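DM between two lab members

TW: hey, do you still have the Putative MAP kinase family protein entry open?
JB: yeah, one sec
JB: this one, 283 aa:
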Amino acid sequence: MDPSKKESEFFTEYGEASRYQVSEVIGKGSYGVVAAAVDTQTGERVAIKKIVDVFDHVSDATRILREIKLLRLLRHPDLVEIKHIMLPPSRREFRDIYVIFELMESDLHQVIKANDDLTAEHHQFFLYQLLRGMKYIHAASVFHRDLKPKNILANADCKLKICDFGLARVSFNDTPSAIFWTDYVATRWYRAPELCGSFFSKYTPAIDIWSVGCIFAELLTGKPLFPGKNVVHQLDLMTDLLGTPSAESISKVCSLVTNETLISLVTNESHFLYSRQYSVSDF
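TW: and the structure you got?
JB:
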């Protein structure tokens, strides 16, 4: 395809469009499109995330703004870097937004899927980078809340970078944060047990460390550790592997759904209890 045609299809009427030469589309989703491009001013290869109709839904606009604000403030070798944000010529034409990121070759999901004879040294280096990045994020009182292999970018030299801060939250003190979920936080398979079935919960940075543990187990085995089909099944898988928690631990669970599920697991009545009270669609 003619490069000029690629660019005209990718960019709308943005004054800085001529600065970037689009080479190919590398990702698509409900948010929009990601393209690989070259910054003609610097010669650097970049990724351009095009988010269409950004103001159509308040929740989407909030998520995008949150990610941009956090990544402009958080600067670390283990976090993806925002290079530039393209603004429209006028506010009246502000419908789409283009965020310029450093370009990475793949993500950890693809690395695990490829299963290219990773060694123990690879595993150690990957885990080291993840924990180092999370230490920096948590030191800034930020919880990522959506760690999963697809949100960890990767290069052929084994460099990893954490991305997608759209669901991240800031905690303003050392006490556990209480947040009302307006969306489910973290893909279910990587979600900490204290978040399962909960729309209102107190949580700590431990929720991210749980996700890191799930990712590391998947890296070692090549398959998800807790591939739950719904919240009840998710908790079933956790207790099958780790054992049922003590009554004291269960009593500290804020979520009524999670609390009742754990109690029922102890008495081997979980499936009966939740087939009667909750349908899979509830989760």
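TW: got it. Residues 176 and 203 are 5 Å apart (CA to CA). The chain has two domains: 3-102, 106-282.
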